[in-house]
Amino acid sequence: MLHNKSFVKKTKAGRVMKQVREHYLRDDIFCGAPFCKVCDTSTARLSASPSTILVLDTNVVLHQIDLLENLAIDDVVVLSIVLEEVKNKNLSVYNRIRAICSNTKRNFFVFSNEYHRDTYIKEMSGETKNDRNDRAIRVATQWYQNHLGSGVKVLLITNDKENKRKANEEGIHAETVETYVKSLDQPDLLDLLVRPSEDVDMEEVEDLRPSKRKVIYIEHKPMSEITSGLHRGIYHQGKLRVNRYNPFEAYVGSESIGDEIIIYGRSNMNRAFDGDIVAVELLPQDQWQEEKSLSIACGDEDEDEDVHLAPNSADDAPRTIPQQGSSGEINAVSSRPSGRIVGIIKRNWHSYCGSLEPMPMPAGSGGIVHALFVSKDRRFPKIRIQTRQLENLLDKRIVVAVDSWDRQSRYPSGHYVRTIGEIGDRDTESEVVLIENDINSRPFSSQVLACLPPLPWSVSSEDLSNPIRQDLRNVRVFSVDPPGCKDIDDALHCSALPNGNFEVGVHIADVTNFVHPGSPLDDEASQRGTSVYLVERRIDMLPKPLTEDICSLRSDVERLAFSVIWEMTPEADFVSSRFTKSVIKSSAAMSYVEAQARMDDSRLMDPLTTDLRNMNSLAKKMRLRRIERGALTLASAEVKFQIDTETHDPLDIGMRHPTPTKEMLEPLLRTAAAIGLHLDVSTSKAMADSLDHAVGDDPYFNKLIRILATRCMSQAVYFCSGELSPPEYHHYGLAAPLYTHFTSPIRRYADVIVHRLLAASLGIVKLPPIFQDRGQLTGISDNLNYRHRNAQMAGRASVELHTLIYFRKRPTDTEARIVKIRSNGFFVFVPKYGIEGPVYLTTRSEKGGGEWYIDEQQQKIKKMDGSISYSILQSVQIHMEVVEPQPNRPKLQLSLI
Amino acid sequence: MEYVSPEGLRLDGRRPMEMRQIRAEIGAVSKADGSAVFEMGNTKVIAAVYGPRQVQNKSQQMNDQALVRCEYSMANFSTGDRMRKPKGDRRSTEISLVIRQTMEACILTHLMPHSQIDIFVQVLQADGGTRSACINAATLALADAGIPMRDLVTSCSAGYLNSTPLLDLNYVEDSAGGADVTLGILPKLDKVTLLQMDSKLPIDILENVMQLAIEGCKAVANYIREILLENTKQLEYRRGV
């Protein structure tokens, strides 16, 4: 093993420092070809007899990653120098190429050329870093060719002209990506190619239409100017969030001015995408309101709001801007600062789902066609792509990635990635929902499945004799779940003790017995975070054998469980509690309806029914107590029977429900005031009381108020206790100082974590090292929040999709409630279907309402002549129908009858 | 940060269980009774031993054993940024103490009452693992000075990064914030004389990391023994002439 030193100069915090690092060169790095006679082939990844081995240049990996992910590209050597360069330039591409390299189905081999004795090269004097790296790639390619002999062709794929020329001079086979892909003779692959910039320039020259030459967007400021601008406080940095309901309006949450900056219109957004980190310049104050009307005038797409599921919390609800200029008051002008984007600090481009804008077929088929791609998510602009297979794509949902957006083009340009399926097809649209919400629905990998215990599985004698496991098989345990539930993760028991008290037990599937920290199974589960429930399918967090069999507490089979056992007085006071791992045998798996029927049937006196009744009365008492303490009984549009299991253990990961801000409750208070109701929102207790007293003459009134209250709340979030101060641990809705849930480890990773902590605090297992790493734990809880939210969004989107499919064939008349008044109509909530949407009183063309007069104070909308008026919470009859104003974007339209 | 690539190579091209290249030289300071230079990769340390000699400060004299003193310092040029290192700062005081205690455990002090042994170690070039290098250098210097010892003390560090135990951390790996175990053993007697750790590790992982460090110490001991043997042969040869 040779030994060598490399000298690196590095700037750190502005200072230039010389750094010396050791660099060991090795002779035990192998080529990865299984047919090689010299090398050790145990780690070989290339296929047995490839005709060509590809070596990739950095620019190919950086720009053509979509192509590389295609299975047609195989037998590739990825050099470590390339990986390093990619990592420095684009971390997400780096992660993707790493994923390909670690996929055992692909023949991608990482060759550590920088540490190999024969392929390491020193920088020559006068050579730039880039040139040196290019040379290293060529040297490695040459080495491969010499090493493997003439039986295999080693081909360098590069889009760098200079590199290709030099390679050819040195006698290395080198080709550009395009020529290589063409030689494969698979035309679909060509669409995956990202066009190199020179080609675009050439086409641009051909295209001499004057409109094309016009500069549409102002230039982004250079990074140095942005940094100094941020320092001096003239620019503000933040993440751009585009309004889900109006793509011409976006917000940038800025810490430097402590408020959100509103960006109106595409030209002010200046090519930024949702999620980009941008630098914003504030507009002069007198332009703040003007910009708004301007943006509507120039908006060439229609921008009305769609019918959606009724939101369940403030996070789901459409964002409302107070005083939306309807009254034109002067104070409204200065209410929110607005600005324009001067530069993009970090792009958040990924791939988008949608379809092509319908266009006529060009005369000659098979040629390159420019098409416009319309994203399903309205927050993203249209994207220009080139395709050779237009006729195949027109009626499909496709995925497209963005490549660039220059100043001259109205739309960004991108390339086709893959086809999902036919538009309107139920499976395709469900797939779109999954992709849009970043949900991994791929089958579990073989490494993950290898972590499962062999099937058929049953409780072994070791489990029974294990001293940490208590044998509770003789206890009458039962479970109550929604009908058809296959992943039963909790079961209960409730038996009367001789002293008149009750022993109540909650038994949770012992998932952590099978999911070991650090295993591929655990990594996968923590990535997925939660199971996702769509209308027609479920995407599991853990593989099916665990979810539906080994960890499902079905009736009449022995299962491992984690149990909490309390002794309670008949008044539901806790006498004692203990936690233990156990073995149980459920005697009945009931549905809610079944359980309710059993309790209601007074003739039934069997022990199981008695247990149920006792349990129910205890639960009622506990709920009452919690309400006294100030827990909110909120309502959402769907009705659910819920059994609450609470633990108050101060564990490391918990849930917190932040107290809603005054601003968030504002719409609720305004609505309440309009109908002459006073709500005290100072504490959750006060709010719970005033909600209880809000009883109108109409039976649905209270429920409606609660629904409105619910959506003012933000969602409860997971947090890691090291990150926040104890007062912030508070759970507002449950009025508990600390709250965590641990009843569903099969479908929530948070519960898996709680189980591990619990087991560790009981001394059953030792604490996995990750719990001592605050950063990593915070990372996990952030991911859980993100996944949880995405899962909910996907669930909602799936319901919306099915609502649409349902109403497509049956236009319906139904009753609805007005929940919000707007200048040209109002929003209604349809209790029967749990959906919410706008009803327009005037058509879009006549702006401002004309004959309608809106009373902000009273939340009423009246006809000028006073003949008709609508007020908030009033009941109206509406007609629901699916229309398709824009092709491929069907939507539900509500109209008054 | 990726300290071990999926290919199993560290940032400097070593594998997790590999040490840096070590090199030692006896007799770098001719005035001293014993001296040595010890290198572990880019870490370079010089040690000089004076004694056993008369105790300078009579009040410290001990009647049943020798007094062992140790002074650790870092040369101003030892790190790239040429910081002025105040003498007697907390870090060097601590390392001085650590080295003194480690060496004291192996020197047969009871054979040399009323005397004192001075060990001076200076870091010429620092690149992680200076503590270990200092102890190794001091062992060599003591042996060179002919001071009676129970066994050679050798030292090596090991750490735990990216869920992998790593032997002999360099500066970059050392400053990664992971656990860093410095171990000193008496290889023949199989006894531990020094065990220090920064940061936290679960007990079973600590065992693995420590096992790795023990392997490292043994490798260092073999090398030191070779050097000493070579040196003795040289001496013998000179005496023969």
From TrEMBL, chain A:
Residues 321-333 have a biased composition (Polar residues). Residues 469-764 form the RNB domain. GO terms for molecular function: 3'-5'-RNA exonuclease activity; endonuclease activity; RNA binding. Signal peptide: none annotated. One of its GO terms (biological process) is nuclear mRNA surveillance of mRNA 3'-end processing. Pfam families: OB_Dis3 (PF17849), PIN_4 (PF13638), RNB (PF00773), Rrp44_CSD1 (PF17216), Rrp44_S1 (PF17215). Residues 52-165 form the PIN domain. It is found in: Nucleus. PROSITE patterns: RIBONUCLEASE_II (PS01175). GO terms for cellular component: cytoplasmic exosome (RNase complex); nuclear exosome (RNase complex). Its cofactor is Mg(2+). Residues 313-333 are annotated as: Disordered. InterPro entries: Dis3_CSD2, NA-bd_OB-fold, PIN-like_dom_sf, PIN_dom, RNase_II/R, RNase_II/R_CS, RNR_Ribonuclease, Rrp44_CSD1. Keywords: Exonuclease, Exosome, Hydrolase, Magnesium, Nuclease, Nucleus, RNA-binding, rRNA processing. The keyword rRNA processing applies. Gene3D superfamilies: 2.40.50.690, 2.40.50.700, 5'-nuclease, Nucleic acid-binding proteins. Belongs to the RNR ribonuclease family. This is Uncharacterized protein. The lineage of its organism: Eukaryota, Viridiplantae, Streptophyta, Embryophyta, Tracheophyta.
Automatic annotation (TrEMBL), chain B:
Residues 18-148, 151-216 form the Exoribonuclease phosphorolytic domain. GO terms for biological process: nuclear mRNA surveillance; poly(A)-dependent snoRNA 3'-end processing; rRNA catabolic process; U4 snRNA 3'-end processing. This is Uncharacterized protein. InterPro entries: ExoRNase_PH_dom1 (IPR001247), ExoRNase_PH_dom2 (IPR015847), ExoRNase_PH_dom2_sf (IPR036345), PNPase/RNase_PH_dom_sf (IPR027408), Ribosomal_Su5_D2-typ_SF (IPR020568), RNase_PH (IPR050080). It comes from Lupinus angustifolius (Narrow-leaved blue lupine). Belongs to the RNase PH family. The lineage of its organism: Eukaryota, Viridiplantae, Streptophyta, Embryophyta, Tracheophyta. Keywords: Cytoplasm, Exosome. GO terms for molecular function: RNA binding. It is found in: Cytoplasm; Nucleus, Nucleolus. It comes from the Eukaryota. GO terms for cellular component: cytoplasmic exosome (RNase complex); nuclear exosome (RNase complex); nucleolus.
